Amino acid sequence: MPYVSFRRVDGTTSYGRIDHATIHDAGAVAGAPVDLKAAIAAGPLSALADGPAIAAADVLLLPVIPNPGKILCVGHNYESHRVETGRAKVDNPSIFTRFADTLIADGQPIVRPLVSEHLDFEGELAIVIGRGGRAIAEQDAMTHVAGYACFNDASIRDWQWHTSQFIPGKNFPGTGAFGPQLVTPQEAGDLSGVHVTTRLNGEIVQDQPIGDMVFPIAKIIAYVSAFTALSPGDVIATGTPGGVGAKRTPPLWMKAGDRVEVAIGPVGTLTNHVVDEDVAH
């Protein structure tokens, strides 16, 4: 079953297994790990006690991992996206970082900032690290995955392109949508033929199978762990397919009132609407 992080009606936070409209509050069990990241580190998730059942409608979902130590993102990891951006082919993944305080949950608004109207969508598959390590061998990498979730790496394109460094355009508040749930590899199964599909106001704008990644998940984990130690709960966003708004004619920017969905088969569907910053704050 999938796992979620959430805020209870009393304002406290927890996590647990979600079964359709019911959440089994694992965090309410005496002696349970403090949050989903800690539960992943204690592992395996299948060993968690269910805890009391509560209605999913009565809680506020949080980002799957609200407090990851690292969020690493892969750029231009689908050939269709590399071609549309005019980037040269590379021998290694292009890695940039996103900050944890940019994350939002399923159902929460993506915020278009005051300083730009160039807000773009990027539907992606995110992986959550289960077993940490440094210099992880590619052949062992998949044993380090706790699960998968949907991600929308919403990007402020003009700020992304101020220089050759991506970080400013990838770290505005309220732009990293992450959810709704964590699905284990056992439950997700083989994802190579599963599509990352992004819909904007009901229209498909991105749609490509995960098997089309230039650098597959195992290669990414091996590469990243060569330069930084990975820890349980770390997140890697694996890149977006072609079809981004910035490369359309005319460009297709997200605006207040838009609804954007990222659907990845058994992993789930992440849904957010867009607001302007002056409305959100």
UniProtKB/TrEMBL annotation:
Molecular-function GO terms, alphabetical: isomerase activity
| Alphabetical keyword list | Isomerase, Metal-binding
Keyword DNA-binding belongs to the record: no
- InterPro entries cross-referenced by the UniProt entry: FAH, Fumarylacetoacetase-like_C, Fumarylacetoacetase_C_sf
Q: Which Pfam families match?
A: FAA_hydrolase (PF01557)
Q: What Gene3D superfamilies does the annotation carry? A: Fumarylacetoacetase-like, C-terminal domain
List, for all copies, the residue spans of the domain called Fumarylacetoacetase-like C-terminal: 70-275
What's this protein's family per the entry?
Answer: Belongs to the FAH family.
Q: What is this protein called?
A: 5-carboxymethyl-2-hydroxymuconate isomerase
Q: Which organism is it from?
A: Sphingomonas glacialis
